[in-house]
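Exam revision sheet. Question 4 asks you to relate a sequence to its structure. Input first:
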Amino acid sequence: MTNRNTTEITVWDLWVRLFHWSLVIAFTLAYFSQGELFEDLLENVDGALLQTIHVWSGYAIVGLLIFRLIWG
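Answer key, structure tokens:
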């Protein structure tokens, strides 16, 4: 029987992984909350709500990018 010494090497730390998944979520929210994409949805959902989601998703993306530039 051979004894193998295995060590786990983490390529990306936790903060970078959280950044990437948060960016995916924010971008998806911004994309799907644009008004022209879902004109039929605007009949059922208030347009102001979709605009608010879209704007805050953009703020989140900018904040995430600033964080990533600082984090390195």
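Marking note for examiners. The radius of gyration is 19 Å.
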